[in-house]
Amino acid sequence: MAAEDKKAPPPPKRQDDTPCEEGLPPWMATFADMMSLLLCFFVLLLSFAQQDANKFKTLMGSIKEAFGVQIKRKEASFAAFSPSEFERKDVELDKENKELLGMVLEVKNFVIQDPELKKTAKITTEDAGVVIRIPSYALFAPGSAKPLPDAASKTATVVRILRERNLDLVVRCHTSDEKAEEESLYPSNWELSSARAAAVLRLLIKEGDIPPSRMKAVGYADSQPLLPNNTDENRAINSRMEFYFHAPSVKSW
Questions:
Q1: Which of 24, 85, 169, 178 has its CA 20 to 30 A from that of 225?
Q2: What's the gap between Cα 182 and its chain centre?
Q3: Pick from 221, 220, 201, 227: which is nearest to 212 by CA?
Q4: What whole-number distance in Å separates Cα of residue 213 and Cα of residue 226?
Q5: Domain residues for 158?
Q6: Interval 59-111: pLDDT, tens
Q7: What is the pLDDT of residues 146-177, one digit of tens each?
Q8: Distances (CA, A) of 171 to 70, 181, 193, 208, 218
Q9: Which CATH number covers residue 145?
């Protein structure tokens, strides 16, 4: 009995037991990362599934600001056809404006790929099309309607757009208010602008083999200045060649 009453001694402590690490166990951190990634994935799927026209318009806000349709201001003091004459209006994402936006992005992409044209050309939008604007001095000598030897390289992108896209073109020539010389072949800016527009049209047909039915040429003389003709710099800006691209279904005039 005495032997049975004796308690068994406690087991000895192991000296190799290491203390538990503080914080979450490694498997829980990995599990939390996986749950976060799955949550982000399903939120992304949900955003795509519920994307409507309003959300699309919000996402395209920056592009809309850059290529918004311009409308004339009712009351303002400005030079005719100058940027200050126009203000932007919100673009509703209907079928026509989606096509216009796509046209603008395509034309801009063509111009960006042309290093030479990118230096001098400017792109603007109109209600039914997009305009590439080039200074006249890049294509013609002063008072001349004969294209410069390198004019074809400046219009190569225009030819490429007409070849690769189903768009029609109006070649529009503008001049400043400088008077023609008395012995000039062109007694007024009307003749000069019309001759330059026709010369560029012939160049496009020759270089690109474009059907003439897809293009028109018109001269505006100095009737639509961008800026007041009061400095040489403004006159150089007003003297310009415009390539107006539009869908075949749109009447250009």
A1: 169
A2: 43
A3: 201
A4: 29
A5: 60-246
A6: 455 444 444 444 444 444 445 555 555 544 444 445 556 666 777 787 888 88
A7: 999 988 888 888 998 888 888 899 999 999 98
A8: 21, 25, 11, 15, 6
A9: 3.30.1330.60
Q: How far apart are CA 119 and CA 134, in angstroms?
A: 10
Instruction: Look up the pTM and report it.
Output: 0.63
Q: Are 161 and 110 in contact (CB under 8 A)?
A: yes
* Per-residue H/E/C for the chain: CHHHHCCCCCCCCCCCCCCCCCCCCHHHHHHHHHHHHHHHHHHHHHHHHCCCHHHHHHHCHHHHHHHCCEEECCCCCCCCCCHHHEEECCCCCCHHHHHHHHHHHHHHHHHHCCHHHHHHCEEEEECCEEEEEEEHHHCECCCCCCECCCHHHHCHHHHHHHHHCCCEEEEEEECCCCCCCCCCCCCCHHHHHHHHHHHHHHHHHHHHCCCHHHEEEEECCCCCCCCCCCCHHHHHHHCEEEEEEECCCCCCC
Residue 79 has phi, psi (to 5 degrees) of -80, 150
Output the CA–CA distances (angstroms, integers) from residue 34 to 43, 46, 180, in the order listed: 14, 18, 76
Question: Would you say residue 193 lies in a domain?
Answer: yes
Residues paired with 147 in a beta bridge: 140
Residue 22 lies in a domain: no
Number of domains the chain is built from: 1
In the block, residue with structure tokens 């010369």? 199
The answer to whether position 242 is within a domain reads yes
Q: Which two tokens stand for residue 147?
A: 């294209």
Within a domain: 25: no
